[in-house]
TrEMBL record:
It comes from the Bacteria. It holds the Pfam family Acyl-CoA_dh_M. Residues 121-220 form the Acyl-CoA oxidase/dehydrogenase middle domain. Belongs to the acyl-CoA dehydrogenase family. Keywords: FAD, Flavoprotein, Oxidoreductase. Gene3D superfamilies: Acyl-CoA dehydrogenase/oxidase, N-terminal domain (1.10.540.10), Butyryl-CoA Dehydrogenase, subunit A, domain 2 (2.40.110.10), Butyryl-CoA Dehydrogenase, subunit A, domain 3 (1.20.140.10). PANTHER family: ACYL-COA DEHYDROGENASE. Residues 6-117 form the Acyl-CoA dehydrogenase/oxidase N-terminal domain. InterPro entries: Acyl-CoA_DH_CS, Acyl-CoA_Oxase/DH_mid-dom, Acyl-CoA_Oxase/DH_mid-dom_sf, AcylCo_DH-like_C, AcylCo_DH/oxidase_C, AcylCoA_DH/ox_N, AcylCoA_DH/ox_N_sf, AcylCoA_DH/oxidase_NM_dom_sf. This is Acyl-CoA dehydrogenase. It comes from Yoonia litorea. Its cofactor is FAD. Residues 233-380 form the Acyl-CoA dehydrogenase/oxidase C-terminal domain.
């Protein structure tokens, strides 16, 4: 067993850390203030990421990516997690579900996405179908050789910039002993397709500038060539490609917690009350001790889950544990840091209130904490018949 990084892995960490500090941090205040990422800033981040050879680093070299392993990609995401989500969105990591593209879908979607020419967004969630993905009401019906989509999606991240969308819709229903079960198919939908509209979404307290949108489909006609994977095989492509994305949420949470922790540590050492640094008070110093212990634990859980994927070992439970622990750890660390800052923690003179707000969504998206606990407990109890 070896817990250190290889020289190459350390180089990845150093390169991305330097990028985040030089290219992301300087724009964060502007994004917080305006809720927007100026186009020229987005383009510049994208251009520099491509130059660095890190654009689409989660894709294999055979399609033009950097061919990083799951573990190496987790290290990249950990460093990116330190910076603003709205800005690091342009350090492009397209959805690796695009590897399911076949035939000329590769030229129209996969390769341009990897080259940074076209951006994607992934649409599963609906107003009445969040955790219960199979409850979706958005449908696609076969008409002649085409498909006709109706319904809507909401909370779709990055849809404001996306050139195309990977959309999951119901294409049928099976009657099972446990009740009706929807069949799901994934479609590739270009922005501007008649009958498809992208509308402004809700304002979130987390990750200002990282927008979510509403998608509406009103008799939106797609050719059969837009089906990604197999008809009714949406769950298969989802399971093959998407379950690893929960590691991203976990590892970004670790990165952000470490950045936040550095603020807590410095403030505990510098801020004086009753004639001494507040870090001398056990009420503060023990919080520091708990924070670093939890951050390290989350880091190890997360890297272990990524390593298991690289080894081809089962990792579903480990990924769920990493996601639930790292995101809840981030909530505790940002809250404790705010407490250590006292009243100043709530003021926007420091980024602490932002870390605290941003932490909230991590326990919700990509499967809530409750759903992760469900995955963990089912995997342990099902073999015992419970
Ligand atoms: C800012 C933001 C961006 C997002 N981006 C995207 C995106 O790009 N693409 C996309 O498809 N989706 C996206 N999502 C959707 C996200 O994945 C869902 O919000 C999430 O899956 C939860 O669904 P919900 O919000 O409808 O909550 P619900 O599913 O309605 O859950 C409400 C509560 O009930 C609990 N609950 C539900 N079922 C169970 C159960 N079986 N056992 C125990 N508790 C349960 C939940 O844990 C939660 O506490 C985004 C969400 C947000 C907030």
């Amino acid at each position: 067993m070896h817990f250190g990084l290889t020289d190459e892995q350390q180089m990845i960490v150093d390169t991305v850390r330097t990028f985040v500090e030089n290219e992301i941090y300087p724009h964060e205040d502007l994004v917080e203030r305006t809720g927007e990422v100026p186009k020229e800033v987005a383009d510049e981040i994208k251009r520099k990421t491509i130059e660095l050879g890190f654009y689409a680093c989660n894709f294999p070299e055979s399609v033009g990516g950097a061919g990083l392993s799951h573990l190496e990609f987790a290290l990249v995401e950990r460093e990116l997690g330190r910076g603003s989500m709205a800005l690091n969105h342009f350090f492009g990591r397209p959805q690796n579900i695009l590897m399911a593209c076949e035939g000329d879908q590769k030229d129209r979607y996969l390769l341009p996405a990897v080259r940074g020419e076209r951006m994607d967004a992934l649409a599963m969630t609906e107003p009445d179908a969040g955790s219960d993905v199979r409850g979706m009401k958005c449908t696609a019906v076969r008409q002649g050789g085409d498909w006709v989509l109706n319904g809507s999606k909401h909370f779709i991240s990055g849809a404001d910039h996306a050139d195309f969308f990977i959309v999951f819709v119901a294409t049928g229903v099976d009657e099972t002993t446990r009740g009706p079960k929807k069949r799901i198919t994934a479609f590739l939908v270009d922005r501007g397709t008649p009958g498809f509209e992208v509308r402004e979404g809700y304002k979130s307290v987390s990750h200002r500038g990282y927008k979510n949108c509403v998608l509406n489909f009103d008799d939106c006609r797609l050719s059969h060539a837009q089906v990604l994977g197999e008809v009714d095989g949406g769950f298969a492509v989802m399971n093959e490609w998407l379950y690893a994305t929960r590691i991203t949420v976990a590892t970004m949470s670790v990165g952000r917690a470490r950045r936040c922790f550095d603020y807590a540590l410095s403030y505990a050492a510098e801020r004086k009350q009753f004639g001494q640094p507040i870090g001398k008070f056990q009420g503060v110093s023990f919080q520091i001790a708990d924070m670093i212990t939890e951050i390290d634990a989350a880091d190890l859980l997360t890297l272990n889950a990524a390593w298991r994927l690289d080894q081809g070992l089962p990792a579903n439970r480990e990924i769920a544990s990493a996601k639930v622990y790292a995101t809840e750890m981030l909530a505790r660390v940002t809250d404790a840091t705010l407490q250590i800052y006292g009243g100043m923690g709530l003021m926007n003179d420091f980024p602490i209130e932002r870390f605290w707000r941003d932490a909230r969504v991590e326990r919700i998206w990509d499967g809530t904490s409750e759903i992760q606990r469900h995955i963990i407990s089912r995997e342990l109890l099902r073999p015992l018949g419970a």
